[in-house]
Amino acid sequence: QKEVEQNSGPLSVPEGAIASLNCTYSDRGSQSFFWYRQYSGKSPELIMSIYSNGDKEDGRFTAQLNKASQYVSLLIRDSQPSDSATYLCASSGSARQLTFGSGTQLTVLP
Amino acid sequence: NAGVTQTPKFRILKIGQSMTLQCTQDMNHNYMYWYRQDPGMGLKLIYYSVGAGITDKGEVPNGYNVSRSTTEDFPLRLELAAPSQTSVYFCASSQSLSALSTDTQYFGPGTRLTVL
Question: Measured at the alpha carbon of residue B55, what is the angle toward residues A99 and B82, in degrees to the nearest 5?
Answer without folding.
Answer: 70
